[in-house]
Structures are given as structure tokens and as C-alpha cells.
Amino acid sequence: MTMQFGVHSEVGKLRRVMVHRPDLELRRLTPANHDELLFDDVLWVKRATEQHDVFASVLRDHDVDVLYLETLLAETLAQTDARTWVLDRAVTPFTMGPGMADEIRAYLDGVQPVTLADHLIGGLTKREAAAILRGRDALETGEADHGSLVVASMEPDDFVIRPLPNSYFMRDPSAWVYGGVVVNPMYWPARRLEALNLEAVYRFHPQFRDAGFAFWYSREQEGESFGRASSEGGDIMPIGNRTVAIGMSERTTGQMIERIALNLFAAGAADRVIAAGMTRDRAHMHLDTVFTFVDRDCVTLFPKVVDSITAWSVRPSDRPGELDVRRESSLLGAIQDALALPKLRVLATGGDTWQAQREQWDDGNNVVALEPGVVIAYERNESTNARLRNAGISVITVDGSELGRGRGGGHCMTCPILRDPA
């Protein structure tokens, strides 16, 4: 039996969501590799997992169907065609080196689906590969290096398959927009296999493969590119009324916004894309780190960044393959107009200048709506949460002291796959 899919707003009743429970991939984050894997620090994984469990329980308490990535991926990989599809792309002479690709592929072809899912998310080290391929004395004898320059040049705990510690930020690898999904060509190499895992689920999982939704973009569909086009789901917001807001940020390029817009317009799925041109900064890598909806007519935002955004409205053109692009006076004005609102209520990050900067960094504006006027937020953002409550927003708080060290809140940690119109 297939499931229903479609995300028709940012604040309508949330029905079904995908998350990832932190696990092995975060235990492999160290002071030596955290920069390469896009973290500012290492996390206390046990506590992060406990906090994520509480977060997921709040979702379920509000009648949200919570799906877990690793479970879905393992169920997907139980299908022979899905396993072949993934490994054809993840384990090749170009990703592993010709000297070891065949042996790694043979091992991964034979493991249980759960084990394969663990490797695709949590990684595989040289030491583990050596034990698998050559026996447990291989590292001491040097046998594991035979025939592979890639393996010979590695330290024992270097990764043959890199872990994906950002996987708990489920918003980014894909984004559901109205009746379809964008599988994002992600900006950093450290995250690109996340999108491969999601595309495998969407194409092959028994509850997805025959559901009839559209792919607004995927590299499988459109082919690899030698350009620098990239997009990530934290920038992509189906705000309703046949409009999508997309941040043109550190991680999402204008080239990809045009590609997504053309595909949406060609299918008659949207009439307008609002592109929000942002400055590039780690503190606000995606639009949703400085701007999220909390009610049908209300947003929370960090003024220092949002006030400097240059916005354009992108609409279909009369000329095939082209777009009508017009500069807007402001992002907020464009959104108010697109949603036909008499007034868009704006709640700025709380506190004085210093507190507002701290709370933006701690994801004060990165809240996820369960329904209009009800959001989940990190408890540490006291001033912003107080400002939301004073405006009539119901704020459910969770401890994000460890989860938030990866630079993401409830909006970042959720991939909505079924949400009502607002």
C-alpha cells in the first residue's frame, strides 16, 4: 500500500514527516574531522539521541506520522534493484579507486539491508574494510593494501565510505513542494551521498515507488552536470497559494532556482517562485536559519539578515524555456502579496542586540510548525520564545543543547512529506 505525499504550505497541519535518529555517523565525528564534515564541534551523541527521541515524541503526540530514514533505507535496500541502483552510484572505480571497488562492492552486495544502510549513513573505515576483505591480520601483514593505492595511502581509521553526520538535518537532501519532490544536488561533497540515500527511498521503497508523485529535480532524472548548480532543502519553502520561496544562499544557486522554477511551471504546479538573495555566512547558511513561518500570517525572522535580502519574483514567461524575473521591493512585501494577506505579522529574534545574535545562532528562528500557530522550538531561546508566545503562538520547547551544536533546529531536522494547505 502506498502512502500519500504532498506539502502544500509551511504551517498547515503536519501529517507525516521523515527524521533521522543520530547514531554511528555522529560517533565518528572528531576534533580532527569535524570541519571537513561541516560541524563546528563534536556532539555528546548519547544526549543528542535522547533529545531527538523527545523531539520525535512531541511530533507523535500531535498525531504526526514519524518515519525514520534508516528504517526506510534498509527496507528499500531489501529490494534487489534498489541495492544495485545505490551501489552502482556509491561504489565505483571513481569513488573507491579501481584497486578496491570490486571487493568492496562484493562485500556490500552480500550484507543484510540494515548493515548496508548503516554503512551508507555511518561509513566504512579502512580498518573495517581490511577485516572484511583480507582477514583480521591484514593491516599487520600489509595484505589489505595490495592492489590499491587508495587503501595503501590511508590511515587505518580513514574512511572508505565517509559517514554522513549531517543526516539528522533531514530538511536538506530533499524538499517536498506541493505534489512532488526536489532531490537536491548538495553544495558540499561531504553531504552529497545523503541525497543518494533519499532518492533511493523515493524511487524504490514499496510505499513510495508507485505513489505517482513528481520529481521536480533529481540528478538521476536530469543527468550529472559539470556546473556548480546546487540546492538544499533549508532554502526551499512551499509557502502556499501556488508560491515557493527559495533562498539564494551559500548552498542554493540561482541556476538551481531557475531549474526548479521551470519544472514547477511546466507541470502547472506553481505560479510564482520568490528568490531571496542572501549574503553567504555560516551563521545563516539557509533561508530557514533566519526566517520561518509560525502561523498563516506570521513569521519569525532575524532582521539583520532578512532586511538585507534582495528578492525577485520568478514567473512563467510567454517564451518557452524562459522566465519572467522581476525585482521586488522586499522579501516580506513579496510574500505578503503572494499569500494575499492584508498584513504579514513579523516577530523579530528576541532580546537585545547581543541576545538576538546568540539566539539566531542557536536556531531561535528555525522552528517547525505542527499546525497554524503551534511550533516546536529549542528551550534555550528564551527571548524569542517569549516574543512568539506574547503574539499568541503556542511554543512547545525541547532541549536542543546537543542537537543544536550541529547548527539546526526543528525545521532543519524534519523533512515534511505530507502537510495540509494553510
Fold and architecture overview:
- α3 (about 70-75) packs across α7, α3 (about 70-75) crosses α11 and α4 runs antiparallel to α11 (about 190-205).
- A 5-stranded mixed sheet has the order 9-10-11-14-15. Strands 1-20-2-3 form a 4-stranded mixed sheet.
- The chain starts with 5 loop residues before the first strand and ends with a strand.
- A hairpin with a 2-residue loop joins β12 and β13 (about 300).
- It is of the alpha/beta class and about 425 residues long.
- Helix content is about 35%, strand content about 20%.
- The protein folds into 2 domains: about 5-70 and about 165-420, L-arginine/glycine Amidinotransferase, Chain A (5-stranded Propeller), CATH 3.75.10.10; about 70-160, Orthogonal Bundle (Pentein), CATH 1.10.3930.
Q: What is the fold's blueprint, element by element?
A:
Blueprint: E1 6-7, E2 14-19, H1 24-27, H2 45-61, E3 65-68, H3 69-77, H4 80-90, H5 93-96, H6 101-110, H7 113-122, E4 124-125, H8 126-134, H9 138-141, H10 149-152, E5 159-161, E6 174-177, E7 180-183, H11 192-204, E8 214-217, H12 219-222, E9 236-240, E10 243-248, H13 254-266, E11 272-277, E12 291-295, E13 298-301, H14 303-306, E14 310-316, E15 323-327, H15 331-338, E16 345-348, H16 353-361, E17 368-371, E18 374-378, H17 382-390, E19 394-398, H18 410-413, E20 415-419
